[in-house]
Each structure stands twice: as structure tokens, then as C-alpha cells.
Automatic annotation (TrEMBL):
It comes from Echeneis naucrates (Live sharksucker). This is Radial spoke head 14 homolog. InterPro entries: ARM-like, ARM-type_fold, Armadillo, RSP14. It comes from the Eukaryota. The gene is rsph14. Gene3D superfamilies: Leucine-rich Repeat Variant. SMART domains: ARM. PANTHER family: RADIAL SPOKE HEAD 14 HOMOLOG, RTDR1. The lineage of its organism: Eukaryota, Metazoa, Chordata, Craniata, Vertebrata.
Length: 340
């Protein structure tokens, strides 16, 4: 038995365990109720119990035909349903085990903007699983092409975030697709979300030796050092992370010293304040990255000289309540005060 729909754009929904099978039964190729059924499924799937029934009832494969439907509204709504399923771990696992990834990846070039956006939302949630990020590595070159041409800011954020997650597993696909240069252009975007994700993606690339080398070669360090003073703490943190990794190389040290990065990093180490837990956690990462960057810069004679002048600040951090910060500061002091 089905209840009357409160919205004419939605299909009536049966009670209890019959709801999901009933709605999926209306998704046949000759059915005129596919769109209302998909809309009702999108509402229904927000209930974890119904989501579980959808995944474990084998209904996910029914969406494969809909992803290839001629009607763009059907394709977009099907991707929206998948996006809602990706909000739960069992949904992400189910997608990886299904045959939906190939048709889904084809929709990256779909003519419908809403469909493309929903695809990016699906992929961005899928990479929350390491296995999901691994499965999308082969798609990174295509995602990089989409990033180059994309104007919609929400999609740029999603693309950068997805590529960043994939690059933490393997930076080579993004590096081979001109990643450092592309992300570098996004670092100065007016939208802080895009700056944040671009810096995060750059940090993922800079973990590898080739990534560090390209960061130095592409001359993006001046922009990154500037972002250390950004108004957004996450932008600052991600930029500090790139600097931390890059100054391991001698060219990275030289560039950062020429850019006068030491005083900026010391100001970040000095900064204190009472903050909410979430902000405090982000500032801890910023502080750790800054201390480690300063430690690497102290390996250069000019860096050591500058840091010896501000040694009391580093020493003060060796008494920090946080053990991680305390140990990072102790290492920095040891390197700064080292004598042959």
C-alpha cells in the first residue's frame, strides 16, 4: 500500500520494507514515472535503514541504464541519488563493487551542467575511501582537463579536492598532467575554498621528490609564502605544508630565504590565542608545519643565522603543553644551535 504523494513531482511511496523495491520497479525504460520515482528515492534514501535496503537489495545496478538515458534530467537525478548514497561508507563500498564507475566517468563530459556537478559530488565522496581514490587514479588526467576549462566555482573546489585525495596515493598522474602549474594558478583565486583546495592539492604533490622539484621550478613559492598570511587558517596551513616539504631541497631553501619566509614562519610559531577546538586543531597543524619548515631552513647558514637571533621564541615553544609541538620545537632548537 502506498501513501499519497505530497508533491506531484514525487511518486507515492509504499510503507516500510516495500518502499525501495516499489520505487525501483518504476525505473523501467518505458516508465513515465522514472523522474518522480527517483525524486522519491532521493528523499527516502536519507533514512539509513532504507539506504541499507537499497545497497543490500542489489538495486544499485538498476541505475546503470539510467546513467545512459537520453533524458538529461534522468541522468542528473540518478547522479543525485548516487551522491546521497555516497554519504555512507556502505554506499561507497557498494559503488566500488558495482559496474557503475565507467558510465559515471563518461558523464564528466555530459551536456547537462547539473549532471556534471552531481558526478563531481559523487566522485568527491568516493575518494574518502582509499580504495575509492585508488580506483579514480586513472581518471586524474581527465579531471585535470576538466579543471583547466571549468568556470563553476563549486565544481573547481570538488575537482581540486578529488585530485588532492588521489594524489596522496600517487602524485604521478597529476604531476604528469601539469598539476603544479594548474594548481599554482588557482592559489590566487578570490574564493578561499578554491585557494584552500589548490594549496592542499599542491601539498599532496610536493610530498614526492619530483613534486618538490616542480614546485621550485614553476616559481609558485612566492605565492605560497604570501598565502602564509592569508585570512583563512586552512589556506595558511596548506601553504605551510607545501613550504615544509619543498625546503627539504636546496633550491627550495634558497628561494624561501630570498623570499624572507623565516620572519613570516616565526610569526606563525609565535601566534597564540584561545580558540574553538576545530580552529585550534587547524592551528596546531599550521604550527607544526611552520616549525618543521624552520628546522629545514636552519640547515642553511643564512637560515641558521636568522633563527639564532630569534632563538628564545623557539625555546619557549619547547615548553608547550602539546607533546607534538614540544618535540617539533626541540628538534628545531637542536638544529639551530648545532655546531660542527
Amino acid at each position: 500500500m502506498a501513501g499519497a504523494p505530497s508533491d506531484p513531482g514525487r511518486a507515492p511511496v509504499a510503507f516500510g520494507r516495500w518502499a525501495v523495491p516499489q520505487l525501483f520497479g518504476q525505473l523501467g525504460p518505458d516508465s513515465d514515472s522514472r523522474l518522480p520515482a527517483l525524486a522519491s528515492l532521493c528523499d527516502l534514501i536519507r533514512d539509513p535503514e532504507q539506504l541499507y535496503r537499497t545497497v543490500h537489495g542489489g538495486f544499485l545496478e538498476c541505475l546503470k541504464v539510467l546513467l545512459e538515458d537520453e533524458d538529461p534530467s534522468i541522468r542528473a537525478k540518478s547522479c543525485e541519488l548516487l551522491h546521497l548514497l555516497m554519504g555512507h561508507d556502505i554506499g561507497r563500498q557498494a559503488l566500488l563493487s558495482s559496474s557503475l564507475l565507467p558510465p559515471l566517468s563518461q558523464l564528466l563530459d555530459d551536456s547537462s551542467p547539473s549532471c556534471r556537478t552531481n558526478v563531481h559530488r559523487v566522485l568527491n565522496r568516493l575518494v574518502l575511501l582509499p580504495a575509492g581514490a585508488a580506483a579514480l587514479l586513472t581518471l586524474v588526467p581527465k579531471l585535470m582537463l576538466r579543471l583547466r576549462d571549468e568556470e563553476e566555482e563549486e565544481v573547481q573546489v570538488l575537482l581540486l579536492s578529488t585530485i588532492s585525495c588521489c594524489s596522496r596515493l600517487d602524485a604521478l598522474p597529476a604531476l604528469a598532467s601539469d598539476g603544479v602549474s594548474q594548481f599554482g594558478r588557482k592559489l590566487t583565486h578570490r574564493n578561499p575554498n578554491i585557494r584552500r583546495e589548490a594549496a592542499a592539492a599542491m601539498m599532496a604533490l610536493s610530498v614526492s621528490k619530483e613534486g618538490k622539484r616542480q614546485v621550485c621550478k614553476e616559481a609558485v613559492l612566492p605565492v605560497l609564502v604570501g598565502l602564509l598570511q592569508d585570512e583563512d587558517v586552512e589556506v595558511q596551513t596548506n601553504a605551510a605544508g607545501v613550504v615544509m616539504y619543498t625546503v627539504v631541497l636546496t633550491p627550495g631553501k634558497q628561494q624561501c630565504l630570498e623570499l624572507d619566509a623565516v620572519p613570516v614562519l616565526l610569526d606563525l610559531v609565535k601566534a597564540e590565542g584561545e580558540e574553538e577546538e576545530d580552529v585550534a586543531r587547524k592551528r596546531k597543524a599550521l604550527l607544526l608545519y611552520s616549525l618543521r619548515a624552520l628546522t629545514a631552513l636552519a640547515e642553511a647558514s643564512d637560515g641558521r643565522r636568522l633563527l639564532l637571533e630569534r632563538l628564545p621564541l623557539l625555546v619557549r615553544r619547547t615548553e608547550d603543553e602539546d607533546e607534538d609541538i614540544r618535540r617539533a620545537a626541540q628538534t628545531a632548537v637542536r638544529v639551530v644551535t648545532w655546531t660542527p
